[in-house]
Design goal:
D-Maltodextrin-Binding Protein, domain 2, alpha/beta, 2 domains, 47% helix, three-stranded antiparallel sheet, five-stranded mixed sheet
Length: 325
């Protein structure tokens, strides 16, 4: 027979489980060290400590994640802010950025050293892999214009994000869109295939814009604001924990995503954190959006996508629920 103490403990655990609020969180891409803060914190119990029974799934590009969050197939997501702004301005997609993650752009194209391509100009007439809604394609016209490249001469080839690296190594495509933070593990794979990767960073053309951001739907903001607060607290704590405990974060990430090697995770996480924690973040706070950089981001997005430059990008932003600095 169970003692009163055991029964009380069981009741407490049961009530605690009931208090956990189920939320679905979709990232923007294949799970890698870039996402170790999210997945590692899931195993660490940080999300649970905020009262969230979270489920994290991989994404298939920022546009796809934004669309799924807007349709209610996911509660929260990671999406390039450019995809959110475009979706809102063009089709009134009911999604908003609730926090920035990367304060400036790690967008780049990976090419093989053996290809002889050393600049964006060298991509004319070449094939670039892409996933539907991928923000690299959204920004590329602007990058092309700034680098003297004829964007109309680029051939975009749709494919799954997970196949992108292999397609590049086997030379079925000439370039692949990746954040620069993925260079370590992609180059390691390329070396196994007897190749070496050269990075063509978008920032070299003058990019200083917001990119990866945390998003949710208008419905979530209106109906479950406390859930949004919990999620954002969990997100900030996850990144701070990963910054202070990178090895533990990556070990827990690898437990969830065993196909990721520990050294790959550590190098990607280290590179990722430089975009999250920097002088800009220290000045403005985690997740903050400033008018100046938002306006610059919209200027770039509007120009690249031929959207109304006078449209107010603040319509796609809601940072009311960010935790205090």
């Amino acid at each position: 027979m169970k003692t009163p103490l055991v029964l009380a403990a069981a009741l407490f655990l049961s009530l605690g489980a009931q208090a956990q609020e189920k939320v679905r969180f979709q990232t923007d891409w294949v799970a890698s060290g870039e996402h170790a803060a999210y997945y590692g914190a899931w195993s660490k119990g940080i999300w649970a400590q905020e009262g969230l029974d979270i489920t994290i799934t991989r994404g298939y590009g920022s546009g796809d994640t934004a669309a799924k969050v807007g349709a209610g197939a996911a509660d929260f997501g990671v999406s390039d802010m450019g995809a959110v702004l475009t979706g809102r301005a063009r089709a009134n997609l009911p999604v908003k950025t609730i926090a920035t993650v990367y304060t400036y752009s790690p967008h780049s194209l990976f090419v093989l050293k053996s290809s002889g391509i050393t600049s964006f100009k060298g991509l004319e007439g070449k094939k670039i892999g892409i996933t539907p809604g991928n923000s690299h394609k959204l920004y590329f016209p602007k990058v092309a214009a700034r680098s003297g490249t004829d964007a109309s001469k680029i051939v975009w080839v749709n494919m799954d994000g997970g196949a992108m690296g292999t397609q590049l190594f086997t030379k079925n495509i000439d370039a692949a869109p990746f954040y620069s933070i993925h260079h370590y593990y992609q180059n390691k794979a390329a070396q196994k295939a007897g190749q070496e990767i050269v990075v063509l960073p978008f920032v070299k053309t003058g990019f200083a814009i917001y990119t990866a951001s945390l998003i949710t739907s208008d419905k979530m903001l209106q109906e479950r604001p406390e859930t949004v607060k919990k999620f954002l607290r969990g997100a900030r704590r996850s990144f701070e924990w990963a910054r202070d405990n990178p090895v533990e974060a990556c070990k827990m990430h690898v437990q969830r995503i065993p196909e990721v090697d520990l050294d790959d995770c550590l190098n990607s996480l280290k590179a990722t954190l430089e975009f999250v924690f920097n002088d800009y973040q220290k000045k403005n706070g985690f997740g903050a959006v400033t008018t100046e950089r938002l306006d610059e981001t919209w200027k770039v997005v509007a120009d690249a996508q031929e959207l109304d430059p006078k449209w107010n990008p603040a319509q796609a932003i809601d940072t009311r629920f960010l935790p205090a600095k």
